[in-house]
Design brief:
By secondary structure, the chain is of the alpha/beta class. The chain is built from 10 helices and 11 strands. It starts with a strand and ends with a helix. The chain binds NADP nicotinamide-adenine-dinucleotide phosphate.
Length: 283
């Protein structure tokens, strides 16, 4: 069996076209949705992510502000920038690219962002809203994964979903979103003794670890949906995920590629959140 591909680029094109239309509608009312992106330090991967986010924003007609700061920036100075952006009416969403240098307390900075502008969905108010089922900004990567499941018409009700990874930005919110759709959810992590025992019984597997070939073909139930969040580099320096794609695609029913899977969806959901922030602030 060869799995069907879930094409994150194609789905993103559809989502971004819909975002562009809503941006035009807001612009007609004199409001241009605006995203501010703050990058501290010179992490090359972060620089690429930030560039892609800013470009995607501009491609949909939104306004974007990119602030880059040296790795030596103090926590107080960053908090001051965030406070200024909270007050700036032309900025509807604020994103602080992670990771931050060690002298800066990441939690403190995220909590300093106005909850109304928390388009990454990392603020405690957003996390609490997700936990309790209240409306709020959803973290972009898990939200993008849910959109992919929706796009293939996969009904999660009564299904077994396994999430590998329990970070606050991917694994935990992913598990909550799957639970909201009535899946029975298992969360695996580095202390899970026998990963395969769980994944072999899963109808859906979301892998968010950051280790190449963590999920192998013998760990997947035939026909399962496999969403690969991981971003790694292979020996040739090429981008790859956490899934042994060449072999798992022969067993799975649906699979996301890397690149061209979850990555573009993450950016698309950031655009959706920024647009929604602008629409809410306009009300
Ligand atoms: P993270 O904070 O480092 O979390 C990794 C998780 O994997 C942890 O919960 C860890 O368990 C677990 N883990 C580590 N080794 C494991 C093993 N052998 N078996 C099972 N679980 C294991 O990473 P993250 O921020 O969630 O990101 C995960 C991956 O997704 C990275 O490659 C990242 O670059 C990528 N990512 C991609 C996107 C995208 O848009 N495509 C967005 C965000 C992240 P413990 O908690 O026990 O340590």
């Amino acid at each position: 069996m060869t799995a069907q591909l879930i094409d994150g680029n194609a789905l993103s094109r559809q989502l971004r076209a819909a975002v562009s239309e809503r941006v035009q509608a807001l612009k007609a009312r004199g409001i241009t949705p605006g995203l501010a992106v703050l990058l501290v330090g010179d992490n090359p991967a972060s620089a690429v992510y930030v560039r892609n986010k800013v470009k995607a924003c501009e491609d949909t007609g939104m306004h974007s502000v990119l602030q880059t700061w040296p790795a030596s920036l103090s926590e107080a100075a960053l908090l001051e920038q965030v406070a200024a952006l909270n007050q700036d009416a032309s900025v509807h969403g604020i994103l602080v690219q992670l990771p931050l240098p060690p002298q800066i307390d990441t939690h403190k900075v995220i909590e300093a962002i106005s909850a109304a502008k928390d388009v990454d969905g990392f603020h405690l108010a957003s996390a609490g809203a997700l936990m309790t089922g209240a409306p709020g900004f959803l973290p972009c990567t898990p939200h993008g994964c849910m959109k992919m499941l929706e796009a293939i018409g996969f009904d999660l009700h009564g299904k077994h979903a396994v999430v590998i990874g329990r970070s606050n930005i991917v694994g935990k919110p992913m598990a909550l979103l799957l639970l909201q759709k009535n899946a029975t959810v298992t969360i695996c992590h580095s202390a899970t003794p026998d990963l395969k025992a769980f994944t072999r019984n899963a109808d859906v597997i979301v892998v968010a670890v950051g280790k190449r070939k963590l999920l192998r073909a013998d760990m997947v139930k035939p026909g399962a949906v496999v969403l690969d969040v991981g971003m790694n580099r292979n020996e040739e320096g090429k981008l790859c995920g956490d899934v042994d794609f060449a072999n798992v695609k022969e067993v799975a029913g649906w699979i996301t590629p890397v690149p061209g899977g979850v990555g573009p969806m993450t950016i698309s959901m950031l655009l959706v959140n920024t647009l929604e922030a602008a629409e809410r602030q306009a009300r």
